[in-house]
Amino acid sequence: MQKVIEVSQYELERGKPMPSKLHGYVQANLIAALASSYPERFTLFSELKLGFGEWESVPDISIYHKMEIDFSLDEVRMTQPPLCAIEILSPTQSLQELIDKARKYFSNGVKSCWLVIPGLRNVYVFSGPTAYEIFRDDEVLVDSALGVKLELSRVFR
């Protein structure tokens, strides 16, 4: 007998697992820390759909150069790649899924990709498809591609 796996509307629309409490907490802390540290350099988006030809993705956080926001116009799909795509591992997701996504981000013009592992309080900062550094919760994350330094104690507190 085959097991039937129900997929929520959230997962169908975004093509990714439902986030958890830790996922949401870390995501909120990352956005707050980045927004307060680099308010004049970056515009941050949460759960923004990116469309690159045949491939679409919804990273947990997208980092763009600072841009003006026109509240009279909205977009449901961005085709311009972000500088950085941040993916946070959900409990039902495999690390390999995120590694595969990172490769696709780089092939579509993203300059940096962070893979966040809440349970281990680690962040993998990819500067290329196979080049990465690991930062732990008591360290300062350094992303040379973005020129960013971020105390991870602000994220995993």
For this entry, give a set of tags.
single chain; 10 strands; alpha+beta; tt1808, chain A; two-stranded antiparallel ribbon; six-stranded mixed sheet
Describe the structure.
There is one protein chain. With 157 residues, the protein is of the alpha+beta class. It has one domain: tt1808, chain A (Alpha-Beta Complex). The chain is 23% helix and 29% strand. The chain contains three helices and ten strands. It has helices spanning 9-14, 21-37, 95-107; strands at residues 42-46, 50-52, 55-57, 61-65, 84-88, 112-117, 122-126, 132-136, 140-143, 148-151. The protein has a six-stranded mixed beta sheet with strand order 1-4-5-6-7-8, with helices on both faces. Strand 9 (140-143) and strand 10 form a beta hairpin. The model has no long low-confidence stretch (mean pLDDT 91).
Question: Helix and strand layout, with pairings?
Answer:
Elements: H1 9-14, H2 21-37, E1 42-46, E2 50-52, E3 55-57, E4 61-65, E5 84-88, H3 95-107, E6 112-117, E7 122-126, E8 132-136, E9 140-143, E10 148-151
Parallel strand pairs: 5-6
Antiparallel strand pairs: 1-4, 2-3, 4-5, 6-7, 7-8, 9-10
* Strand residues, percent: 25-35%
The CATH class is Alpha Beta
Number of helices: 3
Reading side by side through the largest sheet, how are the strands ordered? 1-4-5-6-7-8
* Secondary-structure-derived class: alpha+beta
Q: Characterize the largest beta sheet: strand count, sense, and whether it forms a barrel.
A: 6 strands, mixed
